[in-house]
Specification:
The complex is a heterodimer of chains A (214) and B (85). With 214 residues, chain A is an alpha/beta fold. In chain A, 38% of the residues lie in helices and 22% in strands. Classes of the chains: A alpha/beta (214), B mainly alpha (85).
């Protein structure tokens, strides 16, 4: 297996638009660290292309942005790209980070005994708040940034060479710091920000080899 | 006995809904939307309507609020916050 990363970037609704836009810092970190990467964008985030890429590149780190359920994660326009019991073995021995609802509750369990790879994801919905006044330019959405900056600590940490456990813990610490900051600030949206960050903090789990590195 | 239990549970559910709606009204500005994955992104009004209807999305919103309230009440939140500077 080669050191490198494949990231899915679907853009078929406002949620996937945000997931994709806020994945830019992950790509930037790859460039900074000279880590090889391949972006699977928009219509290309389909099952056929995803399977082809995983087989042909054999990279050891996979980032899935998309909607999800206990048994699958979707790509562009809701197409299921990784399905429990069908093609989930493609992720064996790899590090997978799924920024997707529920995936750790079912699909992720397939990797809980993986001695080389691991799965980091959410066992209830990954949630975020967005500022509707920034909907046309999500990257300037300072509210949404709070949720993506903290979750991005997982992939960015792994690209920097941290173990999966270290990156997961750093991400969760960043969420706690975000909650603390919001509660101290006590402005009109603080309570909502703290609650949603707590949801993601409680939901984010690491399954499999906690010492996995890229 | 069974009817009494169901009636008490309904009462509790209605109280929970009222509590969560009050929290949403107090803690979210109208310009914010909540994204819950494939359920889409919801305005404050839509969130309140789902909670009022008690559908799947509404129940998920209630659960999120309850998790936070429980974490505050049990001291889990403070304990976790004390682990970071």
């Amino acid at each position: 297996m080669k050191k490198g990363l494949i990231i899915t970037l679907p853009q078929s609704d406002d949620v996937t638009e945000y997931l994709t836009v806020f994945s830019r810092p992950i790509i930037n970190e790859c460039k900074r660290k000279a880590v090889k990467f391949h972006e699977l964008k928009r219509e290309d985030v389909n099952k056929k292309e995803f399977e082809r890429l995983l087989k042909s590149y054999d990279y050891n780190f996979i980032i899935l942005n998309g909607h999800g359920n206990k048994d699958y994660v979707t790509g562009h326009q809701g197409e299921k790209i990784i399905i429990k019991g069908e093609n989930n073995s493609l992720l064996n021995k790899k590090i997978t980070y799924a920024r997707s609802c529920w995936a750790a509750a079912g699909l992720g369990n397939c990797y809980s005994k993986d001695k080389r790879g691991c799965f980091i994801g959410y066992n209830i919905p990954f949630m975020f708040l967005m500022d509707t006044t920034r909907a046309t330019n999500p990257i300037k959405d300072k509210i949404a940034e709070i949720f993506f900056k903290t979750s991005n600590c997982v992939p960015i940490g792994i690209i920097k060479g941290q173990t999966a456990e270290h990156a997961n813990e750093n991400s969760k610490k960043a969420m706690l710091k975000g909650i603390k900051k919001a509660l101290i600030k006590r402005d009109k949206d603080s309570q909502a920000i703290a609650e949603i960050l707590w949801n993601n903090y409680s939901a984010q789990v690491l399954l499999g080899n906690k010492n996995a590195i890229m | 006995m069974n009817e009494k239990y169901i009636s008490q549970e309904n009462k509790l559910n209605e109280t929970l809904k009222k509590l969560v709606i009050a929290r949403i009204e107090a803690s979210m500005s109208p310009m914010l939307k909540l994204s819950i994955g494939s359920d889409g992104s919801l305005t404050k009004e839509q969130m309140i309507n789902h909670v009022r209807d008690g559908d799947n999305i509404g129940r998920r919103i209630i659960q999120t609020h309850l998790n936070f309230v429980k974490a505050q009440a049990t001291g889990h939140l403070i304990a976790a916050l004390n682990t970071v500077q």
